[in-house]
UniProtKB/TrEMBL annotation:
<dbReference type="InterPro" id="IPR044742">
    <property type="entry name" value="DEAD/DEAH_RhlB"/>
</dbReference>
<dbReference type="Pfam" id="PF00270">
    <property type="entry name" value="DEAD"/>
</dbReference>
<dbReference type="GO" id="GO:0009409">
    <property type="term" value="P:response to cold"/>
</dbReference>
<dbReference type="InterPro" id="IPR050547">
    <property type="entry name" value="DEAD_box_RNA_helicases"/>
</dbReference>
<keyword id="KW-0547">Nucleotide-binding</keyword>
<feature type="domain" description="DEAD-box RNA helicase Q">
    <location>
        <begin position="2"/>
        <end position="30"/>
    </location>
</feature>
<protein>
    <recommendedName>
        <fullName>DEAD-box ATP-dependent RNA helicase CshA</fullName>
        <ecNumber>3.6.4.13</ecNumber>
    </recommendedName>
</protein>
<feature type="domain" description="Helicase ATP-binding">
    <location>
        <begin position="33"/>
        <end position="203"/>
    </location>
</feature>
<feature type="region of interest" description="Disordered">
    <location>
        <begin position="424"/>
        <end position="511"/>
    </location>
</feature>
<keyword id="KW-0963">Cytoplasm</keyword>
<dbReference type="InterPro" id="IPR014014">
    <property type="entry name" value="RNA_helicase_DEAD_Q_motif"/>
</dbReference>
<dbReference type="InterPro" id="IPR000629">
    <property type="entry name" value="RNA-helicase_DEAD-box_CS"/>
</dbReference>
<dbReference type="GO" id="GO:0005840">
    <property type="term" value="C:ribosome"/>
</dbReference>
<dbReference type="GO" id="GO:0006401">
    <property type="term" value="P:RNA catabolic process"/>
</dbReference>
<dbReference type="GO" id="GO:0005829">
    <property type="term" value="C:cytosol"/>
</dbReference>
<dbReference type="GO" id="GO:0003724">
    <property type="term" value="F:RNA helicase activity"/>
</dbReference>
<dbReference type="InterPro" id="IPR011545">
    <property type="entry name" value="DEAD/DEAH_box_helicase_dom"/>
</dbReference>
Length: 511
């Protein structure tokens, strides 16, 4: 590992990094900062949670001229939450240099942003729709931009933002530097690189697997109608501190979070149809550990860095391997360990194998725990908690009461009752989980039928790999078939609608 001081970084930025607790550069930072400082375009690939934000953030801040009042850097991100997070990290890196920064995203009052823009920010972080909106209103001048960053670029294409991005880039000088980082490099990213970048320096941090080593990966085979009960039993055995459960659709997320709440879990949902205020408050509560389980669509799959997420559950197997990599990458970040469990119905096993082929990592089969195993898991936790309380030795006020109880009751019964009262016993309260149709059988897709975002502009790589994928002919059919079926589709970050529509179809935007 290299110390940041060896990377030709200014004293002010070094001070900021120190304050952030960054001592040594991560491999992707070490590999890319020097090129980006020279003004080169950089295409960087490294696993989730390995510091790609600072890899573009540090050189970007370094290259800002604090005396120049124009917008010198523009960062575009697919979701509002990610835009906010990136701007917070850049703010910290640029703190000692006193760089002025503004984030602009949908769901926030535009008047407020217009006023803030008059304060001459030097860096803008935003979502495509809102940036475009400001350009149309002539409230955002991008003709002095020197550095452009596309964070999660392929996701922005999947979401149908290509037209917005093209339009935004017409306002940014061609002489700019472009930085593009991702954990996955599907062909769509190459396409973006070819379109938007000039002779980029490509830096790929070599690893055996595409997913992070310290995430233990499991799959559990279950029929669609059994999934929820299996999930609650697994939760009872795992006792996750902080978990994210991904569901395929918005309705799914609503139903799951309600069902979990009914069964006594502290869970909340997040998806693109919620108001911005609600999205932010749910995320804040999750970060503050006031919510144990965040149920989410893919709106939370990309880039979000929430420390302490111990478990990720894919209640529905994601439609493509990249989505899998990003989703499970919400845990096991910055060297921490994590655990991921993917539910798969027997019909969807083909998808699981393709995920494994892509990530080069096999998932371990997990036998669904039985009701009694789940109960034992709960009881064990209750017992551990009791022992912890005894060891904390703060029971003076309770000893008199304990002695009173012991005069009339047997000691074993009393301890048993304490364990029982702390154990979450099987809960049969009825809940509603509508059945999700399984993904189309694998063979239907083997002609290259990647539905997710796979429009004819080549948004996504075909699902198949290593000779499985065929021509693009089936792709559009796949897109239509899926687009009609999937409620809300995946265009979550964009605030609903169907991401598979062609760019000319009106759609709700991220603003
Ligand atoms: N050099 C460093 N030393 C210590 N911590 C770091 C360093 N660089 C980044 N981090 C921390 O690591 C975490 C993950 O970083 P970041 O969000 O940039 O990952 P990423 O590679 O962009 O992941 P993803 O692919 O999921 O977007 C963050 O909490 C960040 O503050
Ligand atoms: Mg990132």
């Amino acid at each position: 590992m290299t110390n940041f001081s060896e990377l030709n970084i200014s004293e002010s930025t070094l001070r900021s990094l120190k304050r952030m607790g960054f001592e040594e550069a991560t491999p992707i930072q070490e590999g890319t900062i020097k090129f980006a400082l020279e003004g080169r375009d950089v295409l960087g690939q490294a696993q989730t949670g390995t510091g790609k934000t600072a890899a573009f953030g540090i050189p970007l801040i370094e290259n800002i001229d604090p005396k120049n009042p124009n917008i010198q850097a523009l960062i575009i991100a697919p979701t509002r939450e990610l835009a906010i997070q990136v701007s917070e990290e850049l703010y910290k890196i640029g703190y000692d240099k006193r760089v002025k920064l503004l984030s602009v995203y949908g769901g926030q009052e535009i008047g407020r942003q217009i006023r803030a823009l008059k304060n001459k920010p030097q860096i803008i972080v935003g979502t495509p729709g809102r940036i475009q909106d400001h350009i149309n209103r002539h409230t955002l001048k991008l003709d002095q931009v020197q550095t452009l960053v596309l964070d999660e670029a392929d996701e922005m294409l999947n979401m149908g933002f290509i037209d917005d991005i093209n339009a935004i880039l017409e306002n940014v000088p061609d002489t700019r530097q472009t930085l593009l980082f991702s954990a996955t490099m599907p062909p769509a990213i190459r396409k973006i690189a070819n379109t938007f970048m000039k002779n980029p320096e490509e830096v790929k941090i070599k690893s055996k697997e595409m997913t992070v080593e310290n995430i233990e990966q499991f799959f559990v085979k279950a029929q669609e109608r059994e999934k929820f009960d299996v999930l609650t039993r697994i939760l009872n055995v795992h006792q996750p501190e902080l978990a994210i459960i991904f569901g395929r659709t918005k309705r799914r997320v609503d139903e799951l979070s309600q069902a979990l709440s009914i069964r006594g879990y502290v869970a909340e949902g997040i998806h693109g149809d919620l108001s911005q205020a609600k999205r932010m408050s749910v995320l804040r509560q999750f970060k503050e550990n006031k919510i144990d389980i965040l149920v989410a669509t893919d709106v939370a799959a990309r880039g979000l860095d929430i420390s302490g997420v111990t478990h990720v559950y894919n209640f529905d197997i994601p439609q493509d391997p990249e989505s899998y990599v990003h989703r499970i990458g919400r845990t096991g970040r910055a060297g921490k360990s994590g655990l991921a469990v993917t539910f798969v119905t027997p019909r969807e096993m083909g998808y699981l194998r393709i995920v494994e082929e892509t990530t080069k990592k096999r998932m371990t089969p997990l036998r669904p725990p039985s009701e009694s195993e789940a109960l034992v898991g709960q009881q064990k936790v209750a017992m551990e908690k009791l022992i912890e309380i005894v060891q904390a030795n703060d029971l003076n006020e309770y000893r008199i009461l304990a002695n009173e109880l012991l005069e009339e009751h047997n000691a074993v019964d009393l301890v048993a009752a304490a364990i029982k009262s702390m154990t979450k016993e099987p809960d049969e309260t009825p809940v509603t989980i509508s059945e999700e149709r399984p993904l189309p059988a694998r063979k239907e897709r083997s002609g290259g039928g990647r539905s997710r975002g796979g429009d004819s502009r080549g948004g996504r790589r075909d699902f198949g790999r290593g000779g499985r994928s065929g021509g693009g002919g089936a792709r559009r059919d796949g897109a239509r078939r899926d687009g009609g079926r999937r409620e809300g589709g995946r265009k979550e970050g964009g605030g609903g609608g169907d991401r598979r529509r062609s760019s000319s179809t009106p759609r709700r935007r991220e603003d």
